[in-house]
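Dear colleague,

Thank you for sharing your sequence with our group. We've completed the structure prediction you requested, and as agreed, I am returning the results in plain text so they can be pasted directly into your records. Please verify that the sequence below matches your submission; if there's any discrepancy, let me know and we will rerun it promptly.
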Amino acid sequence: MSCVTSLSEAKRKLMETYRRGNTTAAVAPVSSIVPRPVGSPVPLSLSQEQLVLREVNTPGIFPLYNECITVRISEPLDVPALEKSILTIISRHEIWRTSYDLSTGRPLQVIHPAPEQISLNTIDLRSVPAAMQEAAAYEAIAPLVRESFDLQNGPLLRFRLVKLGEFEHKLILIAHLSIVDGVSAYQIWPSELAALYRAYSAGRPSPLAEQRIQFGDYAHWQRSRLADEEMAMQVAYWRQRLARLPVLNFPRSRAQAATNTFPGGISSFAFPSALSKAVKELSRQEGVTLFVTLLSVFATLLFAHTGQEDLVIGTPSPAGRKSSDVAGLLGYFLNPVALRFDLNGNPAFRSLLRQAQRFTLEAIANDDVPIEWLARELQSESETRRNPFLPIAMSLQPAMPDVGLDWSVTSMDVQSGGSPWDLYFAFIDTPEGIQGRVQYNSDLFDKNTIARLWQHFQQLLEFFTADTGKRLADTKGLLEDKVSLA
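Please find the predicted structure tokens below.
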């Protein structure tokens, strides 16, 4: 099934950027985004609205969508310059000083004035032995990450500075997912922060140009341009693509909980340097992106543990970043999409790579339909209702650009206690190698199970980097300790 013949020129160009491995490049559409009418209500974007409504309507002890982003600063720090830089970013981006009016059926953005000053609360851990500092930092930050945001009054972000030594700091940003995505966290936020910090610490003015538009302008534009006919065409694509959607019977280490409160955990892992190089070389030789290679291994992992040949994997698509107008905007531009695999016939891994690339490109071309909306459309015809609609997902985070300073960025370092997914593998390609964070529903999985799954993923990756002609059946017996119910 292919949708390529019906693509707009903008989407054709976007698909080409994905084929070349650039998963964050924007493509300017025919009509550019203009500022919204003055005084008009400011809607949420389609995917942002669904995310906010899901959190509001989901009971639970812990928040589902609190994101913890860490900027590690390995050099002497000018704290006043850093505070001024953060203040400037909050002033530049309306979405970082926004809350939501939830009094009606459709939430609206409420944009607050920029604060006049900001003062970082510092956690000084210099007296803690070096071997214990990471654990101490985690313990200090965890309560802040697990504290729900007041969506109606804001603010939807909070900061802490952790001082580990004279030349070692952690700037912690805790934000609600509705105001930040991977491009925001790994590219725009550190780039703007570094540019402003260099200028302010040297006594120079901001080098950043004024924003032409804001996230609210994008949300207004998005809702006005998505005509019923275009949306109907995309819904029709997904209705056909996801017909008779299978339920993934993934073995769990715990039985299904009686209540859908979505408690969660996070485990961190890393590939050996040699394996990281091997998988990138495999991707280059096969002419696919690193994401496609990791996705294909993930599909094989699910097949190995379930025996199911019809699999669906979710992934966050940067649906809103197809316009060059939003390339420099902070905000939530993602929309999860469903990638459905057909593993019948014992395909070779090389064939699976081609399938994964094709399905990814097709999904990107039809990713404007909000996933919750799509779930309602499809589940109304199904006898099985599942929450979440896509329980298992994978992503490759954008790489941090070189900001000219000894800084690095990571996310999901501290867990919020909640998880919107049953199982979510998030990868990032760093100069030190490919790292991963696995977020999981702790009602379903325990930490030991997640560690085994990561080990199995690595074993499969090593197996296929040695020979992409090997078939799925060749993995039989490779993974000795399958996940099983306790």
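Summary note from our side: Residues 1-7, 23-30, 381-386 have pLDDT under 50 and may be disordered.

Kind regards,
the structure core
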